[in-house]
């Protein structure tokens, strides 16, 4: 073998080693004790509570949380912060779909939001404190923090409220900066990065953001303990992160097949067993 060929092979191997090390650094999940993962492992969690397809029991409503808790399911719910700093359980940024009203949650006071009703029912938008009281620690809770103009206040107030909750809880977000806040300020809390395939994410957010988050290239900011990834094709980077130890959480499942290859499942519109492992 010539000296030039040997040098080429050496630099190729060194380059490959450096690329692998860089990839591992970027994608590596946070390290979570088994006791942190245990309440969620092998659990089915009701997406926005156990709501019905006809909306007679609305998503993210107190009746949906009560029914899920009664059966023994875990629960996933969404948290936003109002104009006047109250924490409410509501998914969308704006009020059109769920309340047939104009405006955004973040630009509306709690007093005005409290007058609205969900999907034409008698049920209103709950405060996070009301939801926690209804659930009462009867199942593990995944709290999704929705990004907005007051992320820091959202994180601080949510964490403060959850610290007084008697049940098991963890947090997740599509925004790695929110997940990163919990990494720095509440390392004892199990935290997760929400994402789905970049091609689909690009329909809902900026293409660059979809590429970075959908491929988990922001993990060095958040160091999530689990990856809550949309059901379907997973990029290589996501599969590598799982191989590096991230807990696998699937959403949104509409059948029991999702249980097979995942550590926890967020479901809706069917009635699986509360535990499958």
Compact summary:
The protein has helices at 3-27, 34-37, 62-71, 96-99, 110-113, 128-135, 151-163, 176-185, 198-201, 207-214, 219-222, 236-243, and strands at residues 43-47, 74-81, 87-89, 141-145, 169-173, 191-195, 226-230, 247-253, 264-267. By secondary structure, the chain is an alpha/beta fold.
How would you describe what is shown here?
By secondary structure, the chain is α/β, with parallel strands linked by helices. The chain has one domain (33-267): TIM Barrel (Alpha-Beta Barrel), CATH 3.20.20.190. The chain has helices at 3-27, 34-37, 62-71, 96-99, 110-113, 128-135, 151-163, 176-185, 198-201, 207-214, 219-222, 236-243, and strands at residues 43-47, 74-81, 87-89, 141-145, 169-173, 191-195, 226-230, 247-253, 264-267. The chain has an eight-stranded parallel beta barrel with strand order 1-2-4-5-6-7-8-9, surrounded by four helices. It is globular. The N and C termini lie far apart (55 Å). Residues 9-14 have low confidence and may be disordered.
């Amino acid at each position: 073998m010539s000296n030039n060929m040997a040098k080429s092979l050496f630099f190729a191997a060194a380059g490959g080693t450096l690329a692998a090390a860089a990839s591992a650094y970027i994608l590596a999940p946070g390290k979570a004790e088994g006791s942190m993962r245990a309440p969620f492992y092998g659990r089915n969690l009701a997406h926005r509570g156990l709501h019905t397809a006809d909306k007679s029991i609305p998503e993210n409503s107190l009746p949906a949380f009560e029914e899920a808790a009664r059966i023994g399911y875990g629960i996933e719910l969404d948290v936003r912060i109002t104009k006047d700093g109250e924490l409410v359980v509501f998914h969308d940024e704006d009020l059109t779909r769920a309340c047939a009203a104009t405006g955004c949650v973040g630009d509306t006071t709690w007093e005005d939001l409290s007058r609205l009703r969900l999907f034409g029912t008698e049920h209103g938008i709950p405060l996070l404190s009301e939801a926690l009281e209804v659930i009462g620690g009867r199942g593990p809770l995944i709290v999704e923090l929705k990004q907005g103009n007051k992320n820091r206040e959202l994180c601080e107030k949510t964490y403060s409220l959850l610290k007084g909750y008697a049940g098991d809880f963890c947090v997740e977000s599509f925004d790695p900066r929110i997940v990163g806040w919990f990494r720095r300020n509440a390392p004892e809390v199990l935290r997760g990065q929400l994402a789905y395939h970049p091609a689909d994410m690009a329909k809902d957010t900026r293409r660059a953001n979809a590429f970075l988050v959908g491929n988990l290239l922001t993990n060095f900011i958040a160091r999530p303990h689990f990856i809550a990834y949309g059901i379907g094709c997973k990029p290589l980077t996501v599969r590598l992160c799982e191989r590096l130890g991230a807990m696998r959480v699937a959403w949104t499942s509409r059948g029991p097949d999702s249980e097979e290859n995942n550590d926890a499942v967020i479901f809706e519109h069917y009635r699986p067993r509360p535990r499958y492992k």
